[in-house]
Design goal:
By secondary structure, this protein is mainly beta. The protein has a single domain, classed as Fucose-specific lectin (Neuraminidase). Helix content is 5%, strand content 48%. It has three helices and 28 strands. Strands 1, 2, 3, 4 and 28 form a five-stranded antiparallel sheet that branches. Strands 12-11-10-9-14 form a five-stranded mixed sheet.
Length: 365
């Protein structure tokens, strides 16, 4: 059974260390599930508090070839637990909805932030070398000295990693100590998979690179000077790539004054839309044949964390506020200002309709 391309997976960490999962399909949310609640008593590695989470969706992209699926499709979740020095990986398989442990990655030890994404490679329908479709899990994390480190693995075996690469050492250009990583995987007709990597430095600057499963990395470039514009100090970053249409690249950020911003980049033309405030929404007053557009600003509090994901509905933006509320916003087109009805909505009160406690971290796929 494949993953539903219209479904959004949301995985959050509460202030009490629980891992909470819900799924959104068009117009509906599933009840919150305490992922490790029933299992923790029998699994010593889970008898601590979850402190961090990252998520990715593993799907088969066969490039139009009449081939069988390469692997069971699943939601992949990586968590940091207070009792464990390394992240733990869990898969929620699409056919059963069951959560299964998938081990750890020995190369990652002592980090406080990590990011994961899935990237696909498939043979071109226009000719060229033939090969079996491939899918790899790309991983990024912050080292003890602020290094931005990446590797990749088969999606079904996260512990079997390829080259482990310090991005700055590999490129020979240093950007400073990093504190937050983000990833978004590409789908391309190539046996070597690739992903967009971004990282925020300790002084709040945002850089990006392309990383490959064979260990190749590009030099880290400044996102703000590349075209997104100056947003000031940034404290959190999330990436997403549209899986349909033009493959638009989305950059979501939380600023030092705790606003949520969004910018986009077109992968073919390289053109950018500059940062937009997602607490602003466009409205129009229509009366007596007069159309008056205006922009209103909504106050949803101050934001701490952010996650992005795309489905067939469009771009989903998830944010965690300073007081632990979880917000969701859907943007069905590439227009980066929300319009009427697309403002942030509280997931607990308006979406799921249940209180899961205060959230401190969020991931989406």
């Amino acid at each position: 059974m494949p993953e539903d391309p219209a479904a959004l997976h949301v995985v959050g960490v509460t202030g009490t260390g629980r891992l909470i999962h819900t799924t959104r399909t068009p117009g509906a949310w599933t009840p919150f599930v305490d992922v490790f609640g029933p299992a923790a008593a029998d699994q010593p590695q889970l008898q601590g508090n979850v402190t961090e989470v990252a998520a990715a969706r593993a799907v088969n992209l066969l490039g139009g070839a009449p081939a069988a699926p390469v692997f069971p499709e699943a939601l992949i979740v990586a968590v940091l637990v207070s009792t464990q020095p390394r992240p733990l990986f869990f898969y929620r398989y699409a056919d059963t909805g069951q959560w299964l442990p998938m081990g750890t990655v020995n190369a990652i030890a002592g980090t406080r932030r990590l990011a994961i994404t899935c990237a696909n490679g498939y043979p071109s329908v226009f000719g060229g070398p033939m090969f079996d479709p491939v899918a790899r899990l790309h991983l990024a994390w912050i080292g003890a000295a602020g290094q931005l480190i990446v590797t990749s693995s088969p999606v079904v075996a996260p512990g079997v990693t390829g080259p482990v690469v310090d991005v700055e050492d590999s490129s020979g250009i240093t950007r400073g100590a990093f504190r937050v990583p983000a990833l978004a995987g590409f789908a391309a007709s190539d046996q070597v998979t690739s992903a967009k990597l971004s990282g925020i430095t300790a002084d709040g600057h945002l850089y990006e690179s392309i990383v490959k499963s064979d260990g190749g990395v590009e030099v880290l470039q400044d996102v703000e000077t590349a075209g997104a514009g100056n947003a000031g100090e940034l404290v959190d970053i999330a990436l997403a790539v549209a899986t349909r249409g033009d493959g638009l690249e989305y950059y979501g950020a939380v600023t030092g004054d705790r606003r949520v911003l969004l910018a986009t980049r077109h992968p073919v033309t390289g053109t950018w839309t500059t940062w937009r405030n997602l607490e602003e929404a466009d409205f129009a007053i229509i009366g007596n044949g007069v159309f008056i557009p205006y922009r209103d600003i909504f106050d949803f509090g101050t934001f701490e964390r952010l996650a992005l994901a795309t489905t067939t509905e469009g771009l989903h933006v998830l944010g965690v506020s300073s007081n632990g509320h979880l917000f969701h916003q859907l943007q069905p087109s590439s227009v980066t200002h929300p319009s009427r009805g697309q403002e942030f909505r509280d997931v607990e009160t308006i979406g799921v309709g249940a209180d899961a406690g205060e959230f401190v971290a969020i991931a989406a796929a």
